[in-house]
Amino acid sequence: MAELLFLRQQIYGHSAERFVPEDPNQLRLAFEGMETIPEEKEVVAEEAVVTYVRKKEEKKQPVREAIPDHLRREEVVIEPENIPEGAVRIGEEVTEKLEYKPGEVYVLHIVRPKYALPQGQGIIIAELPTQVLPKSNAGASILAYLLVSKYQDHLPFYRILEMFRRIRVHFAASTVNDWACAVTDLLLRPLYETLKKEVLGCDYINIDESTIPVMDRDKPGGTKKGYFWIVRSPGQNQLFFYYDKGSRAQRVVVDLLRSFKGAVQSDGYGAYDIYENKKDVMLLGCMAHARRKFEQAQDNDPLRAKYALTVIQDLYAIERKAKNDGLDYEQIRQLRMVKSYPILQDFEKWLYENNFKVLPKSLIGKAVTYTYSIFPRLVRYVCDGRYNIDNNAAENGIRPLALGRKNYLFCGNDESAGRTAVIYSLLGSCKLAGVDPMAWLTDVLKRIPDHSSQRLSELLPNNWKPLN
Question: Could you give the percent of the chain with pLDDT greater than 90?
Fold first, then answer.
């Protein structure tokens, strides 16, 4: 029965995780009992007829938003017909309408004149600028558009090619795929490795995993479940995706975080348990995952679930206050020690007492056991104002991946999934840095072939400055 209720909640219930307690002062509607109780009969008989005039609400007039000033104006002047001689213009009426033209594909026509030197000394000609992809007719902007459209706007290549065909521009699907592979492997992968090194070089990261279907060579026409690991640095506003043959095994995170020193924030996945015993690494938990467990247990044990959710709600209220008041990291730490830590101490006692009172395999039992087992990790965020109460920063970074797999469905092989990780990492960092991904990628593709490998950090989104 509990499983059925949980399944119904997952399918038909609300998806918001924030707990809103029931208001005891909220009026209830009762649909059972007598239509009129005896005490009301005398009053009903004496009631006078009351007429009710409904007050008509005034409709609010819609406010039209102004057309942005930065848009190009294409002026059209419409003169009246048969203007009499001697008429004087005294003003004008202006009407503005938003219009749209499809994106333009144009040809960069590069001409390099050749000159013959006197007395047969040879021929001179200007050097051709470095090409993004030698022996290819694709320029930086068209390559950037293809990658941003697929990995930022989540359009499969076949849809993009259909859009090009409508403006009479035809690309072969195999050609476009070759372009994407070459750009990723030859140009963007070194930049990705630089990004990964910077993120792992900080002392506080969020980490999470998510799945993506990958075509399985051993099962023609079938797919396997591949895993992306996402690592985000809240302090640097950077992230990267990592793909290791689709594995979620502990060995992947061991290899990935081999040289990391600092705080690692994750969910309760057992692969991270080893970092409880590693020197120079502190493991932080995710309060949102604990809250999710109690949210799912509300129908199973309303009283216990409501208590836990109310406690977690109070902890999040303190975090919102710190954010709204604009506190610095030290002030946040002090606020947590004074307000949050006592709440967490009482919560731990409650978890310990109830851990022996609930059925282990019930939903409330699983929620209490899960939260109590990782409670030391859940408390550690109070010791540093930089640390988050949950791991939502990493989960939010996964959302583009979730949208993408709904559109292009799967990756063709492990190599394709690895390239997807590279592009998602760089475009995701653009979003965190507030950088236009199209402008950034177009500029970087032009510059990176001639850029020093020792200064690739300059081209990362959070450091990028476009050339004039």
Answer: 46
Q: Cα dihedral sign for 364, 366, 372, 374?
A: negative
Residue type for position 46: E
Q: To the nearest 10°, the Cα dihedral for 330, 335, 337, 341?
A: -140
Dihedral sign, Cα of residue 420, residue 423, residue 429, residue 430: negative
Distance between CA atoms of residues 406 and 376, nearest Å? 37
226: left (phi over 0), alpha (psi -120 to 50) or beta: beta
Cα–Cα distance list, 460 to 195, 197, 277 (Å): 7, 12, 34
DSSP assignment string, 154-221:
---HHHHHHHHHTTT----HHHHHHHHHHIIIIIIHHHHHHHHHHHHTSSEEEEEEEEEEEE-TTSTT
The helix (H) or strand (E) run that includes residue 228 is strand 223-233
Crossing angle (nearest 10°) for helices 414-433 and 392-407: 130
Rounded distance, CA 65 to CA 276, Å?
A: 55
d(CA 390, CA 272): 16
Q: Is 59 helix (H, G, I), strand (E, B) or coil?
A: coil
Domain boundaries, the chain: 287-390
d(CA 425, CA 423): 5
What is the rounded CA–CA span in Å between residue 299 and residue 292? 13
Give kind and range of the element (H or E) at residue 372: helix 363-373
**Could you count the other beta carbons within 10 Å of the beta carbon of residue 165?**
11
Burial letters 207-234, b for 16+ CB under 10 A, else e: bbbbbbbbbbeeeeeeebebbbbbbbbb
Instruction: Name residue 263's beta-bridge partners.
Output: 204, 282
- What is the C-alpha to C-alpha distance for residues 322 and 332, in angstroms, rounded to an integer? 6
Q: Is the dihedral of CA 112, 114, 117, 118 positive or negative?
A: negative
> DSSP class of residue 234?
T
Instruction: Say if CB 367 and CB 301 are below 8 A apart.
Output: no
Q: Looking at the predicted structure, is the pLDDT value of residue 118 above 50?
A: yes
pLDDT in tens, 201-258: 999 999 998 888 888 777 776 778 888 899 999 988 899 999 988 888 889 999 999 8
Spatial separation of the C-alpha atoms in residues 40 and 454, rounded to whole Å: 88
Whole-number pLDDT of residue 407: 66
Record the pTM. Answer: 0.79
- The amino acid at residue 387 is Y
